[in-house]
Structure formats: C-alpha cells, structure tokens
C-alpha cells in the first residue's frame, strides 16, 4: 500500500469529520473533494487545490446567474456544462471541472440558491481541499537516497564508457555494443524526474542541486555521443591515440570524484602540447585519424568546461562532480 493511498484515506476521513463538525450540508462531498485534492507532491497539491477552488467559484457564479434567469430545469445543466467547459479551458482551470460540477449539482439538489447555500459550498471546498493539502504536506518520502543512487549509477556508467573509449584507442579492433551509453541516458532521465519531484515537495524553492546535476550530466552525455561519432573515424591505432587513451583512463576515475580536481584538464593541455611537437601526418589515413583525435580532444574540452562550471569544492554548498 503506497503512502499516497494512506494520505488519501486520511484526508477523506478528516474532511468529512470537519464538515460534520461545522454542520455543513453534503458533508460527504468534502471527502470526495479531499480525494481529488491529494497529489504526488506538495507543490502539485497546493496548485491543484487553488485551481479547483477558483474553478468552483467561477462555476457557482455562472450557475447562479443561469438559475436566476431560467430557473431549475434539467436542460440548464447541459447549458451550464456547454458554457463552463470552454470558459475553464480558456482560463486554464480545466482541471477544476469535477469539483466545480460537484458544487453546482448541489444547487440543483437543493432547488434554491441563497447566500447560505453559496457559503456552504465555499466551506465544503475549503474543508475538502484544505484537508487534502494539509495531509499531503505532513509527510513526503525523502528522495535523497534514491537520488544518490541515481548519481552513483550514472557516474559508474560514465566511467565504463570512458574505459571503453580508452580501450578502443589502444586497439581499434575492439568491439563494444554501447549498452552503457543507453543505460546512462535512462539513468539521467530517471534521476531528472526524481529531482523534479523532490523540488516540487518544497513550497517556496526547490533543491536546485539535483536539477542542476542531472542537467549537467545530460549535457555531458550529448558531448560523449559526439566523441563516439568521431571515434568511428579512428580506424587504426596510432601513438597519438594511445596517449589520448591515457587521458580517458584518468577521466574514468575522475568522474567518480566528489570535487573537480582539474587533473584531466591539465592532462589534456599537456597532451595538446605534445601533439604540437609531433611530426605532421605523412599519409592521408594518418591525417584523417589524427584529425578525428584532435576533434575528440576539442569536444572533451567542452565536457570539462561544463564540469568545471558546475564544480563542487569539498565542503561547499553545491555537490556537483567533475
């Protein structure tokens, strides 16, 4: 049984109890409103309750005008729905149609409209949706552990990809199915969804670290895919490739570090200095392969720039990794 199920049951019971305590008409409807008001996150719950209250008030106003003009007739319900649905869609309150209809149908059940009836409907809305909002906010599961696991999984997969790149640069005949790349993309997407849910469980502000972290990894993964496209042009093993392989081997370890060490960046600058002192290519195949290797190092520069921008120094507030 999930926590949302338990909260829904608790909110419904609390809403009905409060409605009966306040002596409201149709107290069971408060329970129905509470069921509609429980959402997966605190922020979603608050936003949904505000939308439903606004939609219901708008619906009550429109229904009251129609009833005053035409009286209580069955066809008025159809006319009301034909009018209110486009209006709610126009003002982006369409998610409040159900609660709006509950309130309006009460008017038809009673057969009359006055200020006491309208006040009763307003109090039902506050009681039902208010109970749902309070119960929803009382407890939300802490997602920190799940987010940490997604981060560790993503970094493990990045490390594996870098290891495979290094192995290919040392031996161009090495075969790799690329499954870690697909798994990394999935891990990042799942982590981003968890981060969004965690942020929505804060009313005033979200945890910007996790959103930023998975956005960073998504950007880096795009660059890794570009590097892999260039790897297809490395169809022979050259000394320059072996030197570049050492860089990726170091990066496979650095990606797991808690801070941006700058080791890979320094290694890359040293490698570029070595490239400049090497003789120029003497054959076309060598030129093509070295050109691909150069483009790989340039793309790697962009990867490291992203990591450096989002870096985390040990003990600082942010926790983004290199």
Sum this structure up briefly.
This protein has 322 residues and is mostly helical.
* Weakly predicted, low-confidence segments: 313-322
The largest β sheet comes out as:
none
Query: Could you state the CATH homologous superfamily of the largest domain?
Result: Putative aromatic acid exporter, C-terminal domain
Portion of residues in helices?
over 70%
Q: What CATH first level of the largest domain would be assigned?
A: Mainly Alpha
Assigned CATH architecture of the largest domain: Up-down Bundle
Please tell me about this protein's structure.
- The chain has 322 residues and is mainly α.
- The protein folds into two domains: 3-138, no CATH class; 144-309, Putative aromatic acid exporter, C-terminal domain (Four Helix Bundle (Hemerythrin (Met), subunit A), Up-down Bundle), CATH 1.20.120.940.
- Helices cover 76% and strands 0% of the residues.
- The protein is built from twelve helices and no strands.
- It has helices spanning 3-21, 27-37, 42-70, 74-90, 97-110, 115-138, 144-170, 179-200, 208-231, 239-254, 263-277, 284-309.
- Helix 1 packs antiparallel against helix 2 (27-37), helix 3 (42-70) runs parallel beside helix 5 and helix 7 (144-170) packs parallel to helix 9 (208-231).
- The model is unreliable at 313-322 (pLDDT under 50).
């Amino acid at each position: 049984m999930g926590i949302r199920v338990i909260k829904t049951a608790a909110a419904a019971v609390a809403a009905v109890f409060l409605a009966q305590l306040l002596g409201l008409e149709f107290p069971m409807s408060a329970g129905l409103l509470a069921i509609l008001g429980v959402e997966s996150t605190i922020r979603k719950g608050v936003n949904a309750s505000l939308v439903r209250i606004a939609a219901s008030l708008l619906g009550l106003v429109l229904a009251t005008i129609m009833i005053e003009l035409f009286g209580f007739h069955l066809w008025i319900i159809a006319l009301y729905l034909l009018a209110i649905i486009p209006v709610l869609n126009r003002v982006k309150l369409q998610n409040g149609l159900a609660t709006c209809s509950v309130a309006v149908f009460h008017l038809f059940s009673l057969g009359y409209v006055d200020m006491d009836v309208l006040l009763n409907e307003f109090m039902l809305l506050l009681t039902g949706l208010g109970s749902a909002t309070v119960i929803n906010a009382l407890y939300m599961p802490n997602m920190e552990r799940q987010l940490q696991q997604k981060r560790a999984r993503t970094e493990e997969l990045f490390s594996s990809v870098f290891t495979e790149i290094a192995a290919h640069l040392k031996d161009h005949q090495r075969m790799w199915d690329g499954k870690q790349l697909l798994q990394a993309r999935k891990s990042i997407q799942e982590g981003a969804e968890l981060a969004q849910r965690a942020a929505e469980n804060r009313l005033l502000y979200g945890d910007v670290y996790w959103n930023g972290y998975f956005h960073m990894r998504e950007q880096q993964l795009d660059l890794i895919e570009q590097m892999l496209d260039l790897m297809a042009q490395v169809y022979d093993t050259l000394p320059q490739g072996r030197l570049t392989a050492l860089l990726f081997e170091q990066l496979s370890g650095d990606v797991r570090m808690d801070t941006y060490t700058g080791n890979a960046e320094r290694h890359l600058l040293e490698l570029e200095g070595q490239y400049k002192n090497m003789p120029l290519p003497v054959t076309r195949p060598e030129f093509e392969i070295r050109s691909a290797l150069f483009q790989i190092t340039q793309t790697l520069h962009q990867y490291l720039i992203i990591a450096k921008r989002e870096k985390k120094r040990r003990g600082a507030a942010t926790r983004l990794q290199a």
